[in-house]
## 1
Amino acid sequence: MTFSADAYFAEVMGEFEASPRASAIHFSRRSILKLSGAAGAGLILAFTLGPVTEAAAAAMSAKDFAPNAFLRVSPDGSILIYAHRPEIGQGIKTAVPLIVAEEMDAAWADVKVEQAPINTALYGRQSAGGSTSIPTSWDQLRQAGAAARSMLITAAAKKWGVPVSECTTADSAVAHAASKRQLRYGELALAAAALPVPDVKTLTLKTRAQYRLLGNRFTGVDNLKVVTGQPLFGIDQAMPGMLYAVYEKCPAVGGKVISANLDHIKTLPGVKDAFILEGNGVTSDVMPGVAIVADSTWNAFKAKAALQVNWDESKASKDSWTKLQAEAKKIAKQAGAENITKSGDVDAALKGAAKTLEAFYSYPFVPHATLEPQNTTAWFKGDSIELWAPTQTPERAITQVAKLLNLPENRVTLNQTRAGGGFGRRLVNDPCCEAAVIAQRVNAPVKLTWTREDDMRHDFYRPGGFHQFTAGLDAAGKLVGWKVHFITFSSDGKTPVAGGNIPAAEFPLPLVAHGELTQSMLPLMTPCGAWRAPRSNAIAFATQSFIHELAVAAGRDHLEFLLEILGEPRHIPPATSAALNTGRAAAVIKLAAEKAGWGKPLPQGHGLGLAFYFSHAGHFAEVAEVSVDAQKRVTIHNVVMAGDIGPIINMSGAENQCQGGIIDGLSTMMNLQVGIENGRVIEGNFTEYPILRINKAPPKIEVHFIQSDNTPTGVGEPALPPVAPAIANAIFAASGIRVRSLPLRNEGLTV
Amino acid sequence: MFKVNGTEHSLDGIDPATPLLWVLRDTLGLVGAKYGCGIAQCGACTVQLNGVPIRACSTPISAIDGQSITTIEGLAAPDGKLHALQQAWIDYDVAQCGYCQAGQLMSAAALLKDKPAPTDADIDQAMAGHICRCGTYTRIRQAIYAAAKGGVA
Ligand code: FES
Ligand code: FES
């Protein structure tokens, strides 16, 4: 029996990976449509943000089309732009409208942003993940803005009877310099609305040098609401008559309910109902458990604490992290069961090497631990259901709920709320599905809230993993052979668990003449998933630490050794802006090194560590300065980062993501792990899962970008992977202690 | 009887053991204070009791009988003018997901009242009870310094 969500993740992540990052989308004229709103409504443009589908075109031309995907210039001068992707803290709700506003030359102060309804026919994909939201919408957003600008400038030129070429736009106004005339966009909205929409092919998009908004610093559009405590998040939803639910699942995944003390639970204060759900046995939908519905969150939590369930664990997980680690160590030195990639003759290369080096690296399972625990509010109304959910994949939630409740998809309405952190956890809609199934039994709106312990123990974890490396150096200290045995997990014996695969092109394999990557999979039932920079977040630690080990063994400077591996500037196939480019890589490495003062004299006991990683189409290098005292206490003095993700949309947002990613990476490498025994995740709350706090955070995190004309790519993830190896390498430089296993606290190192 | 942001509320009919957090969120509809851990570990639920930051998730409602609570909804002046920290939080674009920030602000506000010119160590001490899962610590520190410099109303 498999109840794994791996297939679900394969689909979700496959979708992200297949997302066009370069300008590969072909536009039809119909990708932008003018809407005739109510008389006097002003200029309303609708545009699709996905590849233009038949459905989108149909939706847009339908007579009764409700203007959803649009930007609107109102006669009062306000400009409304809808943000179509979930805001999970990555800043997308600010970045997307900025792109539109830039091309239309709108004054940012005039722009109002609203969260778009979920309607994929109109907006294309509305999920947030894989750092793909910006690259997949870049061209459409710019064209929508440019089309609006073109209509507004044409309207002004007509009014004045001057050629369009004599007019200019800036700050929500068209100007005619020769006659010193100016009209605000609001004043032109009605006239512009009467004009035909220009063919997108005739639109000229701005060059980077012409940007007025992009690249500057903008505060998030919801920040006022955030700092005044307005109800923004899923967990904040409330409505008259709403009830509060909790859901208890088997602590070992796969267990079923035999019986529970429901009669007693129903007598507890405030409890309205308690019932067993069989679920459909899929972790990404609904697993078996006991639901309790009460008149307040607290009464529901209290009743949950008094709940006693007799579980049938005959088919449940018996996973043991201790045993899995021992097993991995045992097989590490054998060749892997499966060959992932092979180039040249690695065994001969290693035999002929002047020096060979071996090392075994490992890292543990980690949960996402979003600060807002999983939750969803659902209201079942007989033949339809309405949901309020902090999800990263709203359209999938609709499909899943429709299936579970046997409703047509158009009877499922999902209201996208802000999410208190995502990190990949909310790519899965299990809380949404549970809430829907519970709501079906309750004659009222019901908010399902997971306790922190539920959240930590019923996650889709970043899988642990193991890398056995062997590499050879020639007499000149040059890397001549690279061999890895990667040990991961599988729920079906055929494919690795979600987030536990390794690509054949894993760094530095495409760059070495003699390389080999083999893989073994240990059986696992614990659910795994996508965790901020899936697989890269862990692989980077192993690979980039081992490269440093090799540089040390060769008696060479790490920076120079790394640049030598990269070699001449070139694209590693496929040659798109989404692929590794050794030139862009070398540039960020050199910049980070320079800004960190690589090679400078350091105070006694300090060390610098360097690491590079390419993920999510972003080239990132980081240099950490640390010191280690006699008690093995690590102090992080500074982290310097250099990244290349094309042009920057919102400098403030991009820096925030990078600094956050670096702190996340540091927190995780130093302290974080969950143990699994008898199928149960041990840690339940922040006492056992000590996320880094302000007093241990580096006082300085310097963020530098190399901006280019490549299509901008996402910044939510790629800053994270290089942190762990940069710090591990710095610890070695400072103290001679080489860490090959995470988290560092297991090795007696504290921060 | 207890006061929240200046308004009196009755405790009648509420189980005295109920944590303040759930009275605020579920009974009074003030959802600015957040649930993050329920065991006084993350600070997301922080409000002020007579000006002192407390963890609402671990404070039974009975303990605040006759006392006065300020939540994030009451941090700005009655005329709507933002507290210097709220303004600094916006100016420095501190939030990522924003979930922890109401709690962070309530502790920061208490800190500045106590120490109008805090040092790094003061900030560490006052703010270490909070977890920001998104890692906005660099900006929290910056924004506290900025608000301190600008003077707190
Ligand atoms: S919810 Fe109160 S401290 Fe975490
Ligand atoms: S901003 Fe997300 S938890 Fe702090």
## 2
Amino acid sequence: MKLLKRKSDRIDELAAGAGEGGTSLAADALKRMARSPVAVVGAGVVALFVILSAIAPWIAPKDPFTRYPELRSELTPTNIPGPMPGFLLGSDQNGYDFFSRLLVASQQTLIVGVLATLLGLTVGMIIGGLAGALGGWVDSALMRLVDIMLSLPALLLAISIAALFREGSQWTVIIAVGTVSVPIFARLLRGAMLAQRESDHVLAATALGVRRRTVVFRHMLPNSLGPVIVQATLTLAAAIIEAASLSFLGLGDPSPRRAEWGLMLAQAQRHFEVKPELAFYPAAAIIIVALGFTLLGESMRESLDPKNRR
Amino acid sequence: MPLLDVRDLSVVFKRKGTAPFTAVDNVSFAVEPGQTVGLVGESGSGKSVTSLAVMGLLPKRGAHVTGSVNFDGTELLSLSMKELRNRRGRDLGMVFQDPMSSLNPVITVGRQISEVLQRHRGQDRKEADAGAVAMLDQVGIPDPARRVGEYPHQLSGGMRQRALIAIALACRPRLLIADEPTTALDVTIQAQILKLLADLVRGTETAMIMITHDLGVVAGLCDEVNVMYGGKIVERAERHRLFAEPRHPYTHGLLRSIPRLDAPRGEKLVPIKGSVVDNIPWEGGCAFAPRCPNALQRCRQVMPELEPEDARHLRCHNPVQPAAVAEGRAER
Ligand SMILES: Nc1ncnc2c1ncn2[C@@H]1O[C@H](COP(=O)(O)OP(=O)(O)OP(=O)(O)O)[C@@H](O)[C@H]1O
Ligand code: SF4
Ligand SMILES: [Mg+2]
């Protein structure tokens, strides 16, 4: 119970600092970020990842879904071919071109990460927005639910949700990972909206007789989005790791027609002694990309923090 | 008949775990159409809470409001939220202290004006946008056609307050409440804003309640002044009378603590001792007694009532005598 409290309190704290300057703050924050090396590195990694995954199918030197005879012929239980002409990183355990598969897998990772985050963001914002706008018992009930979800370790919750589906697929992973991020978004938006409700400009709008609906959608919501946007970046990092973990555990789509870093990592385990790179490269890719999003998110949060203004 | 008639207004804050706190205690005053009435007092004397109660803006939970607020024949305290929302912004306008935090940072000032015009005047967006430009022009913002599209952070402090006034006056409310409208501004800007407010309401039917802790602000602006202490009105008088002859010891002290340009060099200001924070409640005596130079034994036993005296209303057992006021002048 104590742990539970701490987690949601931390989220509320983040939310309370929200929207104290709106547009001016956003513009300032961008300027500050451009000067921070951490932000630049984070943004660089993220940009590179997004561009690579967008053009991966066109720049992949070989077809990632073809088993090449010249690779297969050399596959034995004790040998997986290393780099050779035309095959930059050699073969994987099935005779596919390892490099092309690695490259194309970035696309899968991005799609799953983004869709899962969007799902969490949408549902979380609806819950948090309702709680923050209506308050009272609606708020209490919804936040009780959210706190229970927050009290469970995210990965455990994601595994339990994924396990509910009869067979693993891309959608299983998206739904499981997305659901896990719902409570953070809900709690964040609700906290920010409650802070807004007490703010001077919302009082001023109320003093002008502005309709309740307008107060919520024009005066409270837009000023509450800062921490939510930051969280979306951080959630993307977590979602990429969680999605990889689910595939690693065999809860994702096992079809070889789909290249995915978590699954590649899982399958490489059995061949670790023969060709450790098969595990090393996907693992490194996951870590670097997640780190990129985390750096970007954290530096965004820092530069949006009103305490760091000027 | 007065436009606004406040009778026996009391606001008690009740929170679980804390003793009830009476922020406004049986306050009565009236505002005639076109009149400007001052509400003066130290921090914590209940000025803002009074104005929020008039506007119906106090939280429903925790704030217990009693008495009567009659606006042009309508009892505001018994209006439904919906009816109240229709009145706010249209009949009753309010200007707040801090122009930066009172403006929505993510929408343009023009939109914040046109929003009110659309809401209460039923204008379409185009008409309302034109109205916004006209309003900005009227409050003396240069190049209004460009400024309507700007965000609050792009304006200077003084211009923001002008924008806030434009928003409050957009629908020509019959009563404007200005709660310390100049406190957050530079001294040089303060005078401009006060002049603007005076110009905007002079010669119109718009009545104004000017809330301030600064008697200097009231001096040039208000027809009548209410001095508040500890949630109660302690003296009410016509402006010139109050300044010429403050009779309540608190008012007297306030006036003596204003720096004057014409005061002889080297003369010390006489601040009022203590602060309103350590006030004792009114029941069983005068709340000002611990700080009052005129206090009598009786002041700690019997609460003084607000009574007509000497062409004013006064709540005091032992008021400052006119002769003593004159003496205080002569000393200067
Ligand atoms: N929501 C509230 N809950 C509890 N007490 C309150 C609340 N709002 C105001 N008060 C108390 O009521 C008293 C009067 O406050 P008010 O804001 O009216 O003072 P004021 O005269 O406007 O002073 P200032 O010059 O500081 O604005 C203060 O002691 C304040 O602490
Ligand atoms: S009633 Fe007594 S204590 Fe109160 S202001 Fe008058 S003289 Fe002072
Ligand atoms: Mg106040």
